[in-house]
Amino acid sequence: MASRKGLHPTQLVAMAFTVIILFGALLLMIPTATNSGESTPFIDALFTATSAVTVTGLSTLNVETHWSQFGHWIIAILIQIGGFGIVGFATLVGYLLDGRISLKNKMLTTSEASIAVAPDIKSLLKNIAKVMLFFQGLLFIFLFVRLLTHYNYSTADALGHGLFHAMSAFNNAGFALYSDSLIGFARDGWIIVPIFMTVIIASVGFPVIVEIRDRAKCYLAKLLKKPKPFAFPAQWSLNSRIVLWATLVLLVGGSIAIGFLEWNNPKTLGPLDPVSKILDSIFAAVMPRTAGFNAMDMSVVNPSSWLIMDILMFIGGASASTAGGIKIGTAVVLFYIIYTEIRGEAAVNIGNRRLPRSMQRQALTIVSLAAAVVIGATVLLRLTTNFTLDEILFEVTSAVGTTGLSTGITAQMPDHAKFLLSLLMLFGRLGPIVVATSLALRKTKRHFEYPKERPLIG
């Protein structure tokens, strides 16, 4: 609850992100940040800074040709700050709200723990930084070696491009230093596979990554007959089970759906061999959740594929990750609420755990607000621009889901539409977390109840 003497924590985070975006926009307006040596218009600088800090990837300008090396580094730094900031805040809030203790105790508490111990913030943030830098460093090595040996990049270019795309991929930002995103590497598995694997790992969220890492240490110690470093419950945490299974379902389902719809499309997968078609289908299913790289031209895909991607972008990745969307946990909780109502049961259960009613209300609120924002923005842009409904819905969902995929209309948007998309990106990055936190921290209680009455529904 907000203090009388200060701002609510979520207000502070929103203000911090806004200040960083404005500062980033001012830096991008410096003539040195462009190849032409001319200052970038404020609305385009603001849009790019917002897209970078919210790790979205939408851009009104050609990232490769418009920005200088200095501009590219500004974008990269904004991406890293945005990714670390949102993961750190979301993870910290998650542990606080769940009543869990810090990572120093290696997540020993179960999903029913109710120990109200404050996390060790310094240790928490240090662990987040280590995980982020480890996976970014791993991808950087893959990209650096491949660009240097196979594409004959100079050492400096291989270093710069490898580092930029490693940061962009793990933070699910989707910014690329190429005008066609990653279409030029679409047939190169040594580039495509490491990138989409990094995106998947980043999208499952920091708590899940830590649990996988620490359980792996325990299994390895058991295999080598050494003392276990930690003691875990036999069962995985409910959050990890939800995230891992839902990620697998969305990945497989999305790949099959996009592959089926694009298999014979002469402008996308049609001319390719079966292996390349499968690889591109997987890549196209991974990126909407929510990295924004593309290995096929989004402007020529089947409109039905756009709709599948809209759904994937709306759901996004896991909580406490660099991914956007309403989050996997929210979507799964909503699914089980519907499933429970259809079955006529009283309590919502997932696996062998019962969900608190407060969490059910939070999930319904987040989904309803996100859907209302998408619908409202789509209607507004349809009334004020000349783009088709399919194109606008895709663009709006991409912004709200902080994905960064586009049908190619971003640069053609009028200024008011660019500003609206900037607001949508900020909402998509902070909105679900701010709403969930505000609801969870609110402890207001009524000391009376009104009489019940059931209106007609359905």
Task: List its traits.
single chain; 458 residues; mainly alpha; two-stranded antiparallel sheet; 15 helices; disordered N terminus
Explain what the structure shows.
By secondary structure, the chain is mainly alpha-helical. Helix 1 packs antiparallel against helix 4 and helix 5 crosses helix 6. It has helices at 9-28, 42-53, 63-66, 69-98, 121-149, 155-170, 189-203, 206-223, 238-262, 274-286, 303-315, 328-343, 357-384, 389-400, 415-441; strands at residues 349-350, 353-354. A two-stranded antiparallel sheet has the order 1-2. It is globular, with a radius of gyration of 22 Å.
Describe the structure concisely for a colleague.
The chain is an all-alpha fold.
Q: Percent of residues in helical segments? A: 55-70%
With strands numbered from the N-terminus, the spatial order across the biggest sheet is 1-2
What's the total number of strands?
Answer: 2
Oligomer designation: single chain
Q: What is the radius of gyration computed over CA atoms, rounded to a whole number of angstroms? A: 22 Å
> Secondary-structure element sequence?
HHHHHHHHHHHHEEHHH
Unreliable sequence segments: 1-5, 99-119
> How much of the polypeptide forms β-strand, as a percent range?
under 5%
| First-to-last CA distance | 36 Å
